[in-house]
Task: structure prediction
Amino acid sequence: MRVSELGEQGLIELLTERLPRPVAETWIGDDAAVFPAPSERLVLTTDTMVEGIDFDLSYASGADVGWKALAVNVSDIAAMGAEPSKAVITVCLPPDTEVSFVDDMITGLVEAASGYGVDLVGGDISAASEITVGIALVGSGSNAPWLRSGARPGDSICVTGALGGSYTGLQALSADPGATGEAVRRHLRPDARLSEARALGGVGISAAIDVSDGLAIDLGRLLSASRAGCEIDSGGIPVDAAASATLEAALYGGEDFELLFTLPPSEVGEAASLVAGCGTVVTEIGRVTSGAPTLDGLPLDRHEERSWDHLRNR
Result:
């Protein structure tokens, strides 16, 4: 069956049947969801996945799309040092989309929401020339949020996990849509570092960002916001050995969704110890400086040009 046969109301009924009842006063069925604010300080993010740009149905299942759509938003909340809470989903579909795709997408959304403690409280459905899944996620934080603008000269620059795996997986899938393995998993089902962010609440994080478009460009964004520079030696960058990644993939590939953060050097050991409890490593890759940002002695912006840009990389 295609979505044009089921109709908008039929799709809404399918969503209502499949989604767990959230902690909310009202949700699907009214013009808006109503729920208690989790705290006085709310954190709001949104991210959109577009067919042919962010995923391809030749290799991604509906469940993969649903999982990733939520996980990338949770990653943004985690990078602010906050807790995810409620999400609304906008789904745009060509009329000839199979209902089975939507059903699988809901499965992925529910799996991710359950794992990250997110309530799915509503959304919108519309027609489009390609499948688009957009999510707006509300979170909360009892402490001051981690911003990109707090890095100071002398701070250590650290990253969780390893880099380059997702891009390596995308390259494998582009060559063979039936490819499998750890690199493919990292691309299709990324892990938002929410547990790691919770653990890092025990140290003095001065600035943070998640690595979504590539280490080089995301580090540049953090340093630009902080009006600071850096000294990075690429030999210290953790390249994803489990996914057989390369240094180039680690620097420019993107979609690893690791946490990139700065903190006083005296707290790096404590940060590594706390995150180790989540089964994840922390690697110190350089220092914040008051000079120009450099990587292997070259200006960082020379590297940023090779990173992903949503409007230029087409």
Observations:
- The two ends are 33 Å apart (CA to CA).
- The chain has a mean pLDDT of 92.
- The CA atoms of residues 203 and 271 lie 6 Å apart.
- The longest helix spans residues 62-79.
